[in-house]
Specification:
single chain; about 575 residues; mainly alpha; two-stranded antiparallel sheet; about 0% strand; globular; disordered N terminus
Length: about 575
């Protein structure tokens, strides 16, 4: 039964928890690449346009249903555990799970019922099947989130990490399988009589275009099955292993608060957090709605200018709506997937640091507060800087390596990734800043900052995407400006609200210097290797050499501190070795 006694409760400090989540995230992202890269190669820009259209509706609705409650649950559970109120922690979990289920059902119905209006609004009717296939994922995701928030509040990141990996594996296997099945069905129908899914096709390219809405929906259905698998794992795990709270801890725990008191507190915390996360996801929805509409406006004005800009990289078989879907599909898959890779890792530091920040703030421990703030921001910077500069200077070879069968799309995506690469620094900083502000109770500030940034993105998209000579290439600049505004505001707000004076030299300047050195080495090694090796070998070699140089520069510049190392597993032994070499500050 839940809360099985005698099971040892696992608990990690900030960095240990972050390492657990980061390892899981890296695995998830690698598996995700094994999903999205072959999927892009299978269904191309137009198919990914349908796929991502469904995703961009799903993300804000999923956020609406799940984003605030896990963080609110984690924070309240962390507070309860810190003060020995284990009965409260259990009660918080039960109440939050009930809220999740109700919200999941409601949002599932909303997404399914509103799918027709949505695809009409974004002028992408062929995305309908993908939207419908993804709708049940909201419900299953809600069930997952109830367990994840509880275990994160208990400072046990393993259940979250394992469920994320299970999700990724099922998504990969099921998504590719169903996409492949629909492609084969389309090919068979074309060979049998030229009618594919009810559409009469004069040639193979038209048959492929008729198949893409269903292949994309098949891939999306794999995502739905993955959320179901993650939810089943967490429910079974909780049933068998429980949470590790002991009989003595429950026996000496104070009487619980009333259910309505806990419910009100959860909602009060969750709503502003949810709005903040929703604002973040709304930036993707802004891209979907504004880009598609403004691209169609640009094509109405001067389609010839757009086609001339891209030349043979756009097929003559595409009509106007397919051109807009194609360009949006490229933007939302190629540069955006890589752009979101590093923030997906840095968000683990925010998730892991939140209980520690809450505990330090509740106890009035200023030293522990500053230690956790500095560590989370510095380690985020250490990860984001080389990725940002490296992605900017190696945009073409990275894209060509990953999407080798879609070189037309790669050529369109290269300038987008060069701009968005720099934005990785700012979006990477956003997650830990948000978690720290949420941990000290200022859940309203991330909402305000994100809405401000989103307004800049919408303005840039609205004005510049509609210009035929610029079109989709304006979207990355909107993204960059959006996250610069959010990051600057978040850092200022964090410093003001916590009273922590940020060490700009250690947090930003040193990692930036190391990141620039890393990027220069990457570019030089790539140019050198490209003279006698292929693109893939040259790219991998350049990244490996740059990573090695980056680690050496970090150690020589003493960017990594002793406290950082001590928080790692077996940190004392590692710290002693690095101190002997004078490589940690």
């Amino acid at each position: 039964m839940p809360g099985k006694f005698g099971t040892k409760r696992l608990k990690q400090n900030f960095l240990q928890g972050a390492v657990v989540l980061m390892i899981a995230t890296i695995l998830v992202k690698v598996i995700g690449a094994l999903f999205k890269i072959p999927l892009m190669n299978m269904i191309g820009g137009i198919g990914m346009g349908y796929f991502n259209a469904a995703y961009q509706l799903f993300n804000p609705l999923y956020t609406l249903a799940t984003a605030g409650m896990p963080i609110a649950t984690a924070r309240m559970v962390a507070e309860s555990v810190a003060s020995g109120r284990y009965k409260d922690a259990r009660k918080i979990m039960k109440i939050s799970r009930a809220i999740f289920i109700v919200m999941g059902v409601a949002v599932f119905i909303l997404m399914a019922a509103g799918s027709g209006l949505f695809v009409k609004a974004i002028q992408n009717p062929n995305a309908l099947w993908s939207v419908l296939a993804l709708a049940p994922a909201v419900l299953f995701g809600c069930v997952m989130s109830s367990y994840r928030g509880y275990y994160q509040g208990m400072r046990n990141m393993f259940p979250t990490a394992i469920s994320q990996v299970i999700e990724a594996v099922v998504k990969l296997l099921a998504g590719i399988f169903f996409a492949f099945i629909f492609i084969r069905i389309g090919e068979s129908q074309y060979a049998a009589g030229g009618v594919v899914f009810g559409v009469e096709c004069a040639n193979l390219e038209q048959a492929e275009l008729a198949t893409l809405p269903y292949a994309a929906a098949g891939a999306v259905f794999g995502v739905t099955l993955s959320t179901l698998a993650g939810a089943i794992y967490l429910a079974i795990r909780h049933r068998i292993l429980g949470d590790g709270v002991t009989e003595d801890e429950l026996r000496y725990s104070p009487r619980t608060d009333k259910s309505d008191v806990i419910f009100k507190k959860l909602i009060k915390l969750a709503i502003p957090i949810c709005l903040g996360a929703l604002a973040m996801n709304i930036t993707s929805l802004i891209d979907l709605v504004s880009i598609m509409n403004r691209l169609n406006r640009a094509l109405d004005k001067d389609m010839v200018a757009v086609l001339t800009m891209y030349g043979s990289n756009i097929s003559a078989e595409f009509d106007q709506k397919e051109i807009a879907t194609y360009l949006y599909g490229i933007f939302s898959t190629m540069p955006t997937t890589l752009f979101n890779l590093i923030p997906a890792i840095t968000v683990t530091f925010g998730t892991s640091v939140l209980p520690n920040i809450t505990a330090a703030w509740t106890a009035g421990n200023r030293k522990a507060l500053k230690k956790n703030v500095d560590a989370s921001l510095r380690i985020t910077s250490i990860i984001a800087m080389p990725a940002a500069f490296g992605m900017a200077v190696l945009a073409r070879p990275i894209l060509a390596t990953l999407f080798s069968t879609r070189m037309a799309e790669v050529e369109i995506a290269v300038p987008m990734l060069q701009v968005m690469g720099i934005g990785i620094i700012f979006i990477g900083m956003m997650s830990p800043c948000n978690s720290i502000l949420q941990g000290i109770g200022r859940v309203d500030l991330p909402v305000k900052y994100m809405l401000l940034g989103a307004s800049f993105k919408l303005l840039i998209n609205f004005i510049f995407v509609a210009i035929p000579s610029i079109n989709i290439q304006a979207a990355p600049y909107g993204t960059l400006v959006c996250y610069i505004v959010i990051a600057v505001c978040s850092l200022r707000g964090l410093s003001r609200e916590t009273g922590v004076k940020l060490n700009l030299w250690g947090i930003f300047v040193k990692p930036m210097f190391a990141g620039v050195v890393c990027a220069v080495v990457a570019r030089l090694v790539y140019i050198l290797l490209a003279n006698f090796a292929g693109v893939k070998v040259s790219t991998v070699g350049a990244i490996a050499a740059a990573a090695l140089v980056y680690v050496v520069v970090l150690l020589l510049a003493k960017v990594i501190t002793k406290n950082d190392v001590l928080m790692l597993p077996k940190g004392e032994k590692i710290a002693k070795t690095l101190e002997k070499l004078h490589w940690i500050g």
